[in-house]
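Note to self: keep these together.
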Amino acid sequence: MPIHTVVQGDQLSSIAEKYGFRKVASIWDDPNNADLKAKRKAHILFPGDEVFIPEKQRRIETRPTGDTHIFRVPAEKLKLKLAILDVNGIPRANLDCTLAVEGQTAPITTGDDGTILREIPKTARKGKLVLPDMEISLMIGHLDPVE
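Structure:
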């Protein structure tokens, strides 16, 4: 049962992916992470934080041989949410822009509240948001908790 020491850019989805867990709750809800969970949010970890990695639980399904069986494995998605505001803090609503994350580029439009929400790979670390008047580099997982 290893301990993962968080480095800059880590977030719980990438840690879960690294250790072969499909759900972040399998790690985050482990009793050995209770102190860290009380101190932090799952996706805002600080370099040096220690995350306990539990043993994976094997699940056994018994089915008769000779039949066809369908197994569905649930997988969580990771979503990036950004709020685009002007210098006065007013949302930039219905703004056409382009979001590029880990080689995936897509046109996207901000909502009425200036936000965008996009599914991204769990291991994503870098991206770029291109607005009509500027480009913004994104360092995913680099938001440190306020202390």
